[in-house]
User: Fold this.
Amino acid sequence: MSVSAEARSAADDPEAPEDGGSAEQARPLVVTGAIAAAAAAATGLGALTTLVAIGWITAPHVGIGSGLGGVLRTAALLWLVAHHVGITVQGAGRIGLLPLGLVLLPGALLALAGRWVVRTGAVTRLRHVGYVAVAIALPYTLLAGALAVASRTAVAAPSLWQAVVASFLLALVAGGLGAARGLAPWSRLAGFMSARPRSIVLGMLGALALLTAAGALLACGSLAAHLGEVKAATDVLDPGFGGAALLLLAQLAYVPNAVIWAVAYMLGPGFVFGTGTVVAPTGSALGAVPLFPMLAAMPSGARPGGPSWVLVLVLAAPYLAAVFGGVVTVRIMPTPVLEAAPLWGFCTGASVGALTGLAAAFAGGPLGDGRLAAVGPSGLTTGLIGILQIGVTSALAAAAANWLILRRGAKRLARPKPEPEPEAAAAEGIPVSVPVPRTVGVPRPAGVVDETDDADGHRIYMNPWAEDPDDEPADRDDPDDW
Assistant:
């Protein structure tokens, strides 16, 4: 589809950005999307090639390969790893424990590509964002598949189907978000949702933010508590100056994995690092661990170390995040139906738990076919426990917060307002309103939506054009006064 013809008929569309290009000079959307996809892939591949070349120069013993061909193949493999594509290594097995931090590189580049397509392709309407995302995702997927085939060697072979699926989904989501953001700010995009879904989404995001912050704090605290072991592992590797910089970048790429592992630890199931191992709040049992400095931060004692109040705070963090999410949900949109508030709160908490389980599934993976075939948290277990734990707590918090909002609003509306005496008001010429009895039950506070009101009740309205009692009565026998 070419959006140029559509854009010419929508020149005065209120959704059009101010800096949109000229519709007559716009390329077809397919061509613009292909250019943007190629630019995003080339930029990411170029950045990773530079890092691999630095590693090849400073540490030639790491097995990158010989010559420029080895550098390019390794960079292509690293680019596929950034899209969460697993690699099968000869003699070792499948490597699926991949750094989630690398996904930020292609994700950011694809978002920029989506914004560029919107500006260059004269896309003026938000309903065309889907076309922009598909126009970027299809050529990007073809490039990823071609790189997966071209980078295959006798030693390492990336998964072709993972390269196709992962690159398409990442380009579709990131490119679509970038295109939508290029047309409207986030506040306006959120306004396209109705009030109830918006309250659930914002409550979910608030709970996820608090849960992520707690996981990051726990991971940093564990790293600080085991700083001696981390330094000892670094000294054994002896990477040198250039190797130390690359090792630091590799550990930063695994920071999102560490945060998700910490969240799984707080929820209770914890994670494993090899068959027959466990790292949980009840205690840890670890075997031999690869020589990677970040792994030294994992607790290895049969009993959790540190003060007991630290463990209490760690286990209470998911509940606090659930309470926050439930309160935010009903604060944005309360409801007078008492049994509906727990339902919306549970939807918020269940969404948080499901996303946590999905993140846990991507944060782990095998490190070969041997003892380390199972590494990281279980996505299914973490998701189920998160849905129950966070969902039920959010439901209770939403019910309590909604009841307090209704109670406070009812008290505010029931509070008597001072009115002038009828005789004094009449003497001063102040109109006096006659109170009309309410027939619709308990008054509803402002901002509360009645989700059961089907407009079948009786209502009494004041007539603003009613006759003033001080006026002379009309002659009912005269038809002109009717």
